[in-house]
## 1
Amino acid sequence: MFTKRLLRTLALLTAVLLLASACANANQADDTVSAEDDTVSTEEGTPVADDRPFEGQTLRVANFGGSWNDAVRDTTGVRFEEETGAQVEYIEGNPPEHAAKLYATVGQEVPFDVIYTDGKVQTDLVKEGVLLEIDPEAVPTAEEIAESFPPINPGFSPGNNLFFTGIAYNTEKFEELGLDPPTSWDALWQEELAGRVAVPDISTVMGMPVTMAAAAVATGGDLMDVEAGVLKLAELDLYSLYSASGDMQNDFSTGDIWIAAGADGRAWQLADEGLPIDFVVPELPGVGERGWAEVGYTDIVKGTEVEELAKVWMRIAHEPESMVEIMKLTGFAPPLEEALLQVFEEDPVWKERHPSASEWKEIMVADWNEVSPLEAQTIDLFNRHLGG
């Protein structure tokens, strides 16, 4: 009797334990499903954790200032923040200023994570060893860009923006004076334009290319004779020797200048405002090519603590979508044929203004590895003969 009751009791306890175990497993499964449901919270079914893996982090971007920074912020920056959940801190200035900060903090915490530069400054930073080489997987467009514009510093940014240094001019004034539209750099020295000419100071990224163009005019083709170039520029009856492109734009707006050596994007901004301004990339006398194209670069700073986040910026900044958006806002073109063709299709006015991809090979790009060693001499010559 006792044995039977004991057996019934043991059986009952076993059943209770089995039921409790089943309930616990069910609750655990519910919790797992609930956790999975919490992760898959987007309509597309993509886990939130994977959607914004860098949320809460900050990327510091050293960039050009003014309208260029505004354009980058509103295009690349917006896409970057939406994709990563990270924030961007923009540090505005010119490339030499940013470079000076990097040199001053070698061995310390870096002042920013990503830097926008021109060819000269990228070359200097590469030589100083303060930039990271690009990750080809992070910049899948690098190879295609390099086909059109071989990088002056292989292994680093191939470039994600492009501008031309050439001649901007007032079409109405040229017509009044009976002058043909300029096709060669020697147009700056036409007597009818005396006192109405502006050229960039040697402190600007355009200074050396313009000096080399003047050298070609003076010598019949020797681009590297910078002394001849500076002396030729000194023959001009200048209205201004400008350090900021905004000053050149203001002088066109007020009618004080009729011709200037400068950047194409600045000229097209004036044209879009309704001013009678056109722009050409002129021939370099005796060289057989036109000049100049200047590629802008974006690189990751060595020592950054957010390298993976910076790689996301690099990918987005070198994608066609960002390049197209920036060209529409600034007039500065993409060095990627796919992006350029998209701009031409969406806004045909640019097809009339901008050299086509087939013309790119006719336009020289200054190799700063060769040009930079001449810079100190050129600055000294500028200071002595042009008062720069």
## 2
Amino acid sequence: MPSYFLQQLQRQRKRTLAVILPALFFLFFLSTPLNAGHIPAPVNRLLFKVSKLFALDEYDEAIDLIKKFRLENSRNEYVNHPELLFALGNCCLAGKDYGCAVKNYQKAVSARPDHAPSWLNMANALYNLEQYDEAARSFTKAFKLQEKKNPELLYYSGICLLLANKNAQSLKVFAGLFADFPKNIKPQWKEGMVRALIADNKNLRALPLLRELVSLYSGEKKKQWSEVLLYQYLELKMNEKARSLALTLARQYPGEEKWWKAATHAALEQGMMEEAMASLMIVSFIHPLDARDAKLLADLNLQAEIPRKALIVYEHLLEDNPSAGLLKRVVYACRSLGQQEKALDILEQYKQIVLKDQELLVSRADLLYTLSRYGPALKAYLLAAGFSRKDHQELKGRAWLMAGYCAWQIDDLQAASRAFARAARFPGQKKSAVKAEGYIKKILKIT
């Protein structure tokens, strides 16, 4: 079975499994209400002004105001108050200066390690910086510090670990999430678990969840997860399930060639050549086949004993990209149709390829012999017999044997005897060659 069908599906599956977090903007401007008793009055007044600027999306002005305040009050400890650093980090985050945000959140948690909102927003900034491993740790830390636990943060942690290629760790996080919060399980958590299982090569364990997702969704999402499930069936060699699902999807979306290609793959894996050919034919109606698919369709026609259709395709392919493999198929198709002359003509057109391939040389000689052109056939067999490649000994032996028969047909008994003697050196031809050589020797004695 051509592996490129699976490669095409794999590329599509990767797009479906691409991990994209929702917009992570857990932006608390403050972790506690303004005028809270533990915030120093100057800081409280400043934060009130900053909150107004923040509400107007004037983040740069808010940052400048905080920086000015910290500079003017540099001798006071409250310039490093965690709420002030948190607010500065939030302004940077809102303005998409993620490096600045992380730096200020880190200062906030250094001043107050249990400052959960800083850990949470820092995870957001780290995610945007594609520092996924650190983002996962920050999400987990924020979760642990929360009084009212939000399991969604563990989901984000698991996804970030996936993005960091920490697949086993991600799977562990998702397993814990499912175990600790069974009543809170959401479809997106199941998606994350599937991604983690597949990434950690636990494909078989992903199948029940994949089937759940397919049943749960409708529309485009149902189609996307059906595609992932189909790929898993194919990859796990669950060919009957793959075939059934591929045909179901092909009937639901008849204009999309990927389902018919998957059905072709699954049918071929089960040896159902006629069904594979039918599916690939439908692909050709949807979109012109590329060279590989066209060749496959021609091969299937040939196997189904429909050489005429196969030959048409092979000839077109030869024009664009001639090769020894295609020429061999052309010869087979022509001979199946009784068109030996056409086969010879085509081989003559691509003589340079034929001269480099012993099998094609023998095929050309066979065609000449079939047409009773024994003299040219003898030359062709001798050319094939003289081929130097050591891995074609069986063909060499057959070429010598057939050269002997050709020489016999044109009454060159000495040449026939020599050819049979050479053929007798090859195990596969020894019996026939010795017998033929015996007849020749008897004839030579009589004459």
## 3
Amino acid sequence: MMRTEGPSLGQAVAVFLCLGLMVSASAGCAWFTGMGKPGWVDGLSPDYPSTQYLTGVGQADTRSNAEDQAYAAVARIFKAEVAAQAKDWESYLVVENRGVSNAERRLTIDSVTKVSTDKMLENVRIADAWYDPDRRVYYALGVMNRAQAEASLMEKVVALDRAIDADVAESRHASDKLAKVRALRRAGRNLVLREVYNTDLRVIRLSGKGVSSSYQVNELSGELEQFLATNLILAVQVSGDHAEPVGRALTEGLIREGLHVTTTIDGEEAGSPELIVRGTVRLFPIEVQDPHFKYVRWCSDFEVVEPGTRQVVGATAHGGREGHLTEREATAKTLRVMQHELSSDVAKAIAAHIFGEIALPERATKTLRVMQHELSSDVAKAIAAHIFGEIALPERATMPASCPREASGIRR
């Protein structure tokens, strides 16, 4: 009886290789198959015509790096167009950040456009890869389907248009001045983001046309600036140590944030400010077991108050310490640091509260950042030195934790 034999080993290998070649060809992995250089390496891609796809080619010494470069190549197509349109949005950013440098405004623009670029890259995929054995270089092809990307962008533009319409309507019907400012601010920010997406849409579409908005960035920014200048004047009132230079630093910081600050307070007269930023600052020497340096601590407590109702609408507290060879030099250094922080961090926090971007508490408390720093450095070092017998800690702590309330010269 004859035994029927199954397929030989050679036949099985041939079938496997054939299937492997078919899979490789369908996946576009030309560098696995030993095929010659594909046309897309030189910018010719019949499988991904420019009428339907945006493409980018990356090359590197590893495949993963080549793929990253392909994504970056597609992103550059959009960034170039966004950069060309950015000047149209700078009017909003100038109002928002008056006094800052062009480099800082450019960083703000870049942070806005990065949101769009990151979203656009979600529509990119790696369609093919190839390895050049002679040059030992990997190539990768990134592609974006125009129709799919357009649908995604239109969805975002329509959603932003609805949000902008709602915010503009709210701003023009609001009786509360803070509510009006916050609504205009949201509308302006959303409009800038909407224009970034619209710029991307012009890149995606073969016609190069986007979808026009009912509003212009410079119109909304001008409306916000005009309202701030005439209806939301701030006054700064500082008491305590070095009150004049501290108040001047805080005022400059608030102006840089786009707010209008008056230098006088007219009481109950018609020209009186809508909000008062009032606070107290203190500098005092502290005992630190350091044979080489003297240390001075600073603290500040500020409130944002509505003069008419005397209501505190927000509060913030900041503090820190600095050291130098003498107490006089330590005091001078501490004053410089305090002025810088008040003109930057404190001013930004107050402006963000007024614009509705964060909510300050109604009572100032010592900042978590300051407490964490002290516990991780000063307190830990002091305890360790006491344990090792290098210093002797007192039995009762006497150092004040923040600005004493009874020393405050603030009018309530």
